[in-house]
Structures are given as structure tokens and as C-alpha cells.
Amino acid sequence: MTDARPRPKMRTVGGTLEAFEQDLISNLYYQRGTTLESASGPDGYHTLAVTVRDRLVGRYARTAAAHYQANPRFVYYLSAEYLLGRQLRQNLLYTGTEQFVRPIAEDLGVSLEELEAYDVEPGLGNGGLGRLAACLLDSMATLDIPAVGYGIRYEFGIFKQAFRDGAQVERPDDWTFYGNPWEFPAPDDRQVVGFYGSTAPALDDPSGLRRQWTPAETVRGEPSHMLVPGYGTPTVNIIRLWQARASRESFDLSRFGAGQYKEAVEDIVQAENISKVLYPDDSTEQGRELRLKQQYFLVACSLRDIIRRYRLRNTGWDAFPAKVVIQLNDTHPVMAITELMRLLVDEYRLDWDLAWSITRRTFNYTCHTLLPEALETWSVELLERLLPRHMEIIYSINHFFLQEVAATYPGDLDKMRRLSIIQEYPEKRVRMAHLAVVGSTAVNGVAELHTRLLAETTLRDFAELWPQKFHNVTNGVTPRRFVRLANPRLSELITERLGDEGWLTDLERLDRLAGAADDPAFLERWREVKRLNKVDLTHQVERSTGVVVDPDALCDVMIKRFHEYKRQHLKLLHVITLFNRLREMPEMDMVPRTVLFGGKAAPGYHAMKLLIRLVNAVAETVNTDPVVSRHLKVVLLPDYNVSRAQVIIPAADLSEQISLAGKEASGTGNMKLALNGAVTIGTLDGANIEIRDRVGAENFFLFGLDAQQAVDLRRHYEPRAYYERDPELRAAVDAIASGVFAKGDRSLFAPVVDAMLGRDEYLALADYRAYVECQDAVATAWRDRDRWTRMSVLNAARTGFFSSDRTVREYCDKIWRVDPVRVEPD
Ligand code: CJB
């Protein structure tokens, strides 16, 4: 795919203001059955949403027609998670109707903000992986790539986080309580999926490779889709979400008649549980049967739908890999490889070798982790029970694969054992990442370091066997949501400086801002934008926590899932160090700081839930200390999600990216923050390295061990030695142990201290001194306002590379080999 291609001019499908207003009133009347006089808030929101949505439907219809006509190669993106963010503002922007809404709303005496309060974000994901999926879909549509995203329509999304006595409590996310105006049900495309049961030989197959599966249970998958508009183009793609429904026979009328109400709906409940809830564990495996059911449900429904779509314009199977490319977003949808084999061999009666050749040419796999414990495996016993035919297919795939291995490395049994899709000890399990690599054409990591480490460590044997399979595609983020929508003030300033909005679809144009980094008037305006954004954030902080923070303080932000490898505890040790310093020297001239944390911990991740409690306890102590709180405030903003990210990111001065080197696959918050002018303090981990390469070492606060040093140190690491050697570190750890943050209770946070002084798995104590010194350098830099602002401008100017448009172009060039399809303009 080439970058330089003529783009259709941005058009509005909004029509005129009068027409828009007319449609609003008519939708209020006919869709909600109410009138202006008696409409409620939800009525107003819903009406506005469908009025905007309807302006995308024509584009979607033209997109579908253009795709049908062109019969192109499609990208099918399979992901168990999507974090789409709120839809209203995005779609107002993408349809060009934003301009109408304010005057109309004013006329009607409501504000857009009031209506937006009902715009709930679909929280169908946990963190970075789910948000990446949403960014890639946005970019695919923007680049006119024919693509469909497939996912699960979880009834309850990622839990809502609240704090009780500082501890995280999880509440269900009933995100469709008011209905979801952005969604179209597509009941005609429902699918039926089987589970359990038994297999038998196919009578007419001498090879024994074709068999017949008779499931013991069936579930219906009902699809609906949400529109994924491109920006500055008429292309509107879709994301198709599956919801599990019981087959009609599941309702036991006779039992109901006999008063056995619970038993009568038992089967329904069981079937519908499949899409009931998003699993809230982030990269640790719970090994639950229901989760495997979810995964199979997603891929079985999606593959049937992909085949249905393929057959609309194609016959036979030879062309399948030329028309269909399936991207597996991590291992959650990897069962798709076995399901396609089952469909081709058992149901469409292709011979095994042809089916395998088609399958391998169809799939690609993106790996998002390096943590061995995050690599999914499923017990053979569970698979044999839940998906007996798939287990047989996995054995056959493995058998042929190991023959290949044996031919390449004769007699190397150790190699065979390491490469095998089946892990034998301590129990037999299926390694999903191995299945993914064996069944795919391309495998990619998500940042340069990640890809290199995948090839050197986690997937080393595979990289040696098939070096050409491995690619790097560094992640990216959509500038539409994370700059234009999140930060309208900065966007306006950028557009004014660059002359037009072209940067929104060609983000590397931001490099022209670099010249402005020496223009004092521009720096002043840049600072003013940041300050106003910080004022907005302080309001949000005060509303949700009651803490009053100073918009002129350095806004130091750590927003991400709570995980040990991300090292929120290292940040906390720094905070406690500042606290101790201020207590000891109340007169010291410290740079005022607001340290803002945001993030959820998996409900079963006790160590991180305790850390959340500790963050809140430290915050309480700091914020109520009359001396310390003059210089330092600490806030853990509850319920961090995409919408909150959109408020925090534009206000951030300092971006904390302090994972232990070699652990964070990429990170994407690091990119969003840099693009909004936050300066990074970080380790040489994930995409931090590429950010630093681009913004320049002088505009990045680097500290800590690199990945190799971390591995070397781990071999003989003694955290206690660091504790004993460094008085400030000792004071920080001792403060936690002393109970000062727990009203004198020394036992509450003892496990945090024990983990630090015991094993300190992620070497926080080893990096502590370098980190604190680096933070001192941050404070020094902050005092020089122009120097800081120049760094801020250069961070934004030089991170245009991290647009997900560039990421999608790389996928197109290296992996997908798809071409854009132009859609008839409005
Ligand atoms: N990631 O969010 C998740 N969940 C997982 O289960 C595994 C990985 C994250 O994916 C992001 C997108 O690639 C990465 O930027 C991030 O480093 C990784 O932790």
C-alpha cells in the first residue's frame, strides 16, 4: 500500500442544520414516541444518537455495495476484546454534524455535555489489547481497507471500579441499560454452535482423518453490528458482535407448567451465560471452562459468517486464502485454526493436506506478551470433553508438524518436546501460542524489542525453524480519538499552525511543529492549552474523589492496568520518598506535583488489589497532611476507562512508563501521552525505546536496567542489599511497614513489604535509586518553563510515527497484502 494517494475531500453527510433538526424532532416522535415538551434525558440522547447514526448508514450501504462489487481480499480481525470508547462525539465528528448540535441543543435548552452523560462506552475489553483492536479498526476504515472486526457482545463489560475504605470493589457494568443506539441486530445471520458430545469415523474416509462430530449441546449465536466509520472517507466498516442465545427448544414448557420455574429455564441460563461477562483477568489465565466456551463460540460463529460472506461472490475453496485473511488478536481466538480445519475436512470434505494448506495461508497471529504465565494453555482433559473433535484435530496437526520438525532436526527429541503443541508435564495441555504459530503464515510482535525478544526467548525455537514467519509491527493509536476528540484545544492549535487538518490522517506532518518549539509565542499558547486541560482534569478529580488539586502543579500520570510488572509500586516508593523529604524538611522548595494513578486490578489479583489499597492509603495520608499537601497530591481516579483516559491524557505533563525492561510488550498509553505533549519518564521497554529514538534522548527521561541487565541481575538478585544500602529507599519501605498509612496497623500492608524485600520479582528496588534521581532531574527541568514546553512540543511533533494508520499500513504491506477499496463519496 502506498501512502501518497489522493483522498476524497472530507465531506459532511450532515446536510443542512434545518434538515438535521427536522430529523431530530421526527426521531424523537417516531422512535421514542415522545415530544420535545416531555422528552427525558435518555430520550434526548437516544434521539441524537440515532439521528447521527442514520447519517452513517448510507455510507455503510455504499461501502457494502463497493465491497460486493470489488470482491476484494478482506481482513477479518478476530478479537475477544474491543474497547471502542464513547460513540457520540466520534460520530458527530466523522459525519461533520458536530457543528449543528450546539446551536440546536442551545435552542432546546440542553447541553451536549448533559446528553453525553448517557453515552456509555462499551467496555468490552480489559486494557491495551482491546483498545489496540479499536484503534486498528478505526485506521482500517480510514484507509478504506475492507475489514470486519469480530467479537463477543458481552452482556456485562469490564467491571466498574469503586473504592470502599480504599479497597477496590467491582460492580457489574450493565452497559446496555438504556439500550445501545449504535448497534444493529442482524438476526438473519445467526449461527448455531455445538459443544461436548462425541466423534465417530467418517465411513467413506480411508485416511481416518475425517470424522464426524455429534455435539451434545447447541447454542445460537446472534450477531449485531456496530458501525466503524473512517475519518475523511465515506468508508464505514463494521464490527460484528455475537451474543449467545439458547435454542428455542431450551425452554422446558412442561416443567414450567409444573411449577418448576428454575429448572424450566436452566438450559437457557447455561447457554446465555456464554456471552454474559467479559473475563476481567488481564494476562493471567483462570482456566475456566466457560472462558474456553466463549473463545470457541466467538470463532465458530465468526468463521461461519466469514464463509457465508466468501460464498456470496466466490465458489470453490482455492480462492479462499486470496480473499480471506484472518488476524488472530493474541491467543484467545486461536481455536479458529482447528475450527476451520474441521469445517473444511469434516463438513466440506476437503482432503487434509489441501485443508491445511488453505488454513495456514489464511491465518496470522499477533502476540501481545512476553510473560510466560500469560501464554494461554488449555488442559487436554477439558478440550477432550468440551470440543472432542478439535482435540483430535490438534493431535493430527501436531503429529504432522512434529514429522516436519524431525525431518529438520533428526534425533533432537528435546527440540520436539519444546516445539510440540502439546505440553506433556506436569499435565497434558495444549499450548495455544504454538498452535497459532504452526497454523499461521505470519507471526508478529507489537514493538521492535518485543519482536526481538519473542524470537530470542518466548518463541525462539519457532523463530529458528521459520525465521521468515516473524515480523514486527509496532503498535499505534488513532489520532482522531486520542488527539482530536480528547484534546480539541491542542488540535485547534496544531491545525492553526500547520494550516489545515491534514495531520489527522497523515500524522507524521506533526514534525512541522518542531520549528515552533523555538517560538516563544507558540510555547506560551501550548502552555495555555495544557493549563486549560489541567483545569478540566482538576474538576473531574474533584467531582470523583473530592480532592482539590492545583492545575499549575506538575501533572504526573500513571494510567494502566495494575500489574506487578508495570511497577505501580515503584512509583509509590517515589511518592513516599517525596512525602518523607517534605516531612523532614518542611521548608524545602519542592516542585508542586499531582501524582495521578488510574487503573483496575483483576478481581482475583490479590497482590494488586492490596497495592490499590496502599495507593489510596498513601493518597489519604499525603493529601491530609497540612505541610506535605501544599506541594504534593496523590489521586487514584476510580474506574479508569477510555472516557477517563480522554480527559487525563491531554492534561498530563509527565508520562510514567516504568515497567521492568523486557516485560511490557509495547504499551500504547505511552504513545497517546507523548502525542499530547507529555514527556516520558521510562525504562528501555516496549515501544518506549522507539519513542525515545524519535523524540531524542534529551526529551525523554530514561532510567533503569535494560532488558539484558535485568535478566543478568535476576540470577543473583538480593533486594535486601538495595534496601540496606539506600537510606531513602529504606525509609520509604519502612514507612509502609510502620503502619503510618494504615492508622498504625502494621499487618495490613505487610505483604507488600514482604514481596519487595523477599523476591521483588520485577526488580523495583534495583531500579529505585536511578528512578528517584531521574525524577529529581524531571523536577529541575520543570522549573525551566520554556525548556519543559519545548520538550513537550517536540514530543508531540516527533511521535507522528505512532499513528495506528502507519501500523495498519505496515500490516497491509508485510502481512495482509490487501488493497483499499474506494467508496462512492457522499
Ligand atoms: N496486553 O492488554 C493486554 N492484554 C493481554 O492479555 C496481553 C497483552 C497488552 O497489549 C497491548 C497491545 O499490544 C500492549 O501495548 C501491551 O504492552 C500489552 O500488555
Structural description of this entry:
It is a single chain. With 826 residues, the chain is an alpha/beta fold. It has two domains: 121-475 and 810-816, Glycogen Phosphorylase B (Rossmann fold); 480-802, Rossmann fold, CATH 3.40.50.2000. Helix content is 48%, strand content 14%. It contains 34 helices and 25 strands. The strands form six sheets. Strands 1, 4, 7, 8, 11, 12, 13, 14, 18 and 19 form a ten-stranded mixed beta sheet that branches. Helix 12 (335-347) crosses helix 15 (388-408) and helix 23 packs across helix 30. The radius of gyration is 27 Å and the shape is globular. Mean pLDDT is 95; it is low at 1-11. The chain binds 1-beta-D-glucopyranosylpyrimidine-2,4(1H,3H)-dione. 1-beta-D-glucopyranosylpyrimidine-2,4(1H,3H)-dione binds next to helix 6. It is an enzyme of class 2 (transferase). Its EC number is 2.4.1.1.
Could you say what the CATH architecture of the largest domain is? 3-Layer(aba) Sandwich
Strand content: 5-15%
Output the CATH class name of the largest domain. Alpha Beta
If you compute it from the alpha carbons, what radius of gyration comes out, rounded to the nearest whole angstrom?
A: 27 Å
Low-confidence stretches: 1-11
Helix content: 40-55%
Structural class: alpha/beta
What brief labels describe this structure?
single chain, 826 residues, alpha/beta, Rossmann fold, 10-stranded mixed β-sheet, 6-stranded parallel β-sheet, 34 helices, 25 strands, 48% helix, disordered N terminus, binds 1-beta-D-glucopyranosylpyrimidine-2,4(1H,3H)-dione
